[in-house]
Amino acid sequence: MGNVPQRLKNFTGREDLLARLRETLSSEITVVVPHTLQGYGGVGKTALAIEYAHRYGSEYDLIWWIAVGQPMLARASLADLARRLELPSAIGKSVDGAADAALEALRLGSPVSRWLLIFDNADQPDDLQDSIPQGPGHVLITSRNPRWEVAATKLAVDVFPRNESLEFLNKRIPGGIEDSEANELAEELGDLPLALEQAGAFQAETGMAVGTYLRLLKDEAGKILGVGKPLEYYPLSMTAAWRVSVAQLSERLPSAVALLRTCAFFGPEPIPLEVFQHGAQAGDIQISELTADPIALALAVRELARFGLVRIDRRTIVVHRLVQALLREELSETERERYRHDAHVLLGASSPKDPDNRAVWPRYNELVAHVTSRTTDLPSCGTPAIRAFALEVVRYLYRFGDFGASYSLAERLIRQWTEDSGPEADVVIDAKRHLGNALRELGRYSEAYAVDIDTLELSRRILGERDRLTLAMRNSLGADLRAHGDFAEARERDEESLILHTEVFGASNPQTLRVMNNLALDYGLNSDYEAARTQHQRTYLLRRDAIPAVSPTELLSSWSGLARALRLCGNYSAACDVGAEARDYGQEMLTADHYLTLRAAIDQAIALRFLATSLEDALALAADTHSRCNALFGPGTPDTLAAAISLTNIRRTMGRTDEALSLAESTVARYPHVYGPEHPYSHGCAGNLALMRRVAGDPAGARQLNEAALVGLDARLGRDHHYSLTVAMNLASDLHALGDAAGALRLNRDALTRLRSLLGESHPVTLGCAANMGADLRAEGLDEEADRLSGQTLGLYRETLGERHPDTMAALEGRRLDFDFDPPPI
Fold first, then answer.
1. pLDDT digit string (tens) for 408-444?
2. Where in 470-612 does DSSP place strands (E)?
3. What's 2's DSSP letter?
4. What is the distance between the alpha carbons of residues 118 and 138, in angstroms, rounded to a whole number?
5. Helices 552-568 & 595-611 angle (0-180, nearest 10)
6. Of 404, 406, 412, 397, residue with least CA distance to 364
7. Who is most buried in 372, 449, 562, 753, counting CB within 10 A?
């Protein structure tokens, strides 16, 4: 070994990289293709090369390390190699002559054929074109410059994965370090090996508490990263190395330094290069000339990568968070504010301008991390266009289905803009509208209602009754009322709102169509299923045929709403067909895990259960949807709860009572925490649990639950509601099982009268009630009336559901039918 640094005692991880490096090097037998370890400064390229040399030293007869700080040093090192090999051809030769002799000996494989040359910290490929040998050995190069990838096989070296950062810190700090502190330290240091080494050395030498070090890192990054003994093979501290690179770059291309400083005020996540290409429309910023010239911009980016200050990855530019911190620290407060504002302007200029458009969501997604970054501090910008862009991102997050992020950003905007512009500013009102939407989708219904009622009154007073924001808030309030269980009031409010929207915007405006869609939900929640079907169908057709096209989220909302309304009308076959199309559309346009696609899947599983031609398919879909919702949203959110109820109902239908009962008990217990104990959904789901308890052999327990649920539903909705009548029919079955046929008959006779008026004589639920009442009549000895009712009921069953449907067969065989509840979206 010649000039190879000592093996590193605390070398950690990198097993995959070492294995890949060994594999690629060993694959070259007769022709040398240089292999480059490439990455930005401090990432551990040299450490990896050192470890490789020591770990695989026995595989070589010669390992020669060449530090390439300057190109002429490579030739001098090769000349030294010639002397060490005692090559006769090098005797008396100049440095270049001796270097050529060494290269020729390596090419011939004499006196050694198994050789490895390591060129450490190489810059330009052209600098080493006359120094890289051919022959049977291997060449390994470490470089910051990505240009090597055109001349060599590249192996990218990135920062440590987090587990290796933690392992390294535990090795480096005597006595170890608490996992939580190590994780926080690794996070702040961005898992950069050199920074971790310096921090570990400083901890080892001073015993400073991790919390103190982190505080200094945030307040004085340049100072704290300038101390702490660096690795022996790396002569400069993080701060010193960065300053050398920036100084060299300043001499070569000052505009690249300005670009780098601008990048320091983005988040540490990848910055799309497209952001800077949009800079030509960004107005007066410090890199205007650079962004206006694509060639100059490409050159500046290339130089930044060459000096290891950034990494280029798939049309993005990545600046390590420590480099960003050091850059910011070097600037005056005035300069910081200017560069930060430039970042705001560049982000705003990059906006796709249409958060409802699924096609541009990937572009918004690239910007989110920078919009929400504390470093970028976008909420502090008072420029109207930038504030409008921030609200676009809130809307995108909501449409995308990331309600938590939408809520967090809206809350930040409200807090900052209220401080800067006052609570009555129109942007504050708009941000509060988005906040309420996010809260509602998170299942935080009481908070959403409180925000929305306050915002509506504020908007009416400041902006007027017919303003766009005021009308949007009216629509939000309807959703809040549904979430609160005030279904009738929600319908009245939305009917009034639709008239106003139509007057202001027109009948086919997207905002008017949102009210129409919500009114269709209102009709369904008030048991007017035919009106819900008609309204959903009209809204769906208007959205489907709209020019310009509406967003996939809004179209899917109407499409799946129509499928749900068809099922509630008793048309199970059409519900399955339309629901399958809606779900396919959601999977294609929004992904299978989008919340609206999952809602369509919940409805499709329910429709399959009612159609009953493939209960196994219904079970598989219900189980998959519940699993997805639980993983994405957690167990206590509205969509997960709805998916769980659907799964319990199909399990009960298929006779898997124990599984159904177990999940139902945990699910029903969660409903009051989300909707409140007196919400119709809480009572309706309690009725489901009662049904399962009776099926499991506990009719007395079922009766007690159903009686309480019916009292609650009567109080909120009245008896002439599908939900109330569902519980009443199940309570009648409880009574029948307990031997109270007279009580069962009274309940079912009343329910049948109401259902014929509410849903129609041939609706499957009405027929189920009639079939059960026939059994009650027989139990009371009223056989003649029972025969008439059963004959009529069976005829309608055959016309409506067909001869082979399980409900028809149950009625024919005199078995009682059960009725379950599925909570629809609000």
1. 999 999 999 999 999 999 999 999 999 999 999 999 9
2. none
3. B
4. 9
5. 20
6. 397
7. 562
Q: Do 149 and 24 share a structural domain? A: yes
Backbone angles phi, psi at 442, to 5 degrees: -80, -5
Assigned domain for 784 exists: no
Query: Residue 220 belongs to what domain range?
Result: 162-224
Asked whether the beta carbons of 275 and 230 are under 8 A apart, the reply is no
Residues 136 and 185 in one domain: no
- Are residues 202 and 88 both part of a single domain? no
Alpha-carbon torsion, ordered 375, 376, 378, 384, to 10 deg: 150
In a domain, 187, yes or no: yes
Would 123 be classed as within a structural domain? yes
Please state, in angstroms and rounded to a whole number, the distance separating the CA atoms of residues 20 and 708: 67
Cis peptide before 548 (omega within 30 of 0): yes
Asked if residue 45 and residue 92 are part of one domain, the reply reads yes
The predicted model gives 678-702 an average pLDDT of 97
Q: Which two tokens stand for residue 736?
A: 């029948």
Q: Are residues 151 and 63 in the same domain?
A: yes
Is 22 found in the same domain as 150? Answer: yes
- Which of these ranges, 80-84, 176-180, 672-676, has the smallest mean pLDDT? 176-180
DSSP string, 178-225: -HHHHHHHHHHTTT-HHHHHHHHHHHHHH---HHHHHHHHHH-HHHHT
Q: What are 448's two structure tokens?
A: 């959403």
pLDDT given at position 40: 60
Please give the C-alpha separations between residue 192 and each of 146, 167, 185, 282, 322, in angstroms, as whole numbers. 19, 13, 11, 33, 9
- Residue written as tokens 């060994």? 22
Strands 138-143 and 115-122: parallel
| CA separation for the pair 282, 539 (Å, rounded) | 39
* Residue 127 pLDDT exceeds 90: no
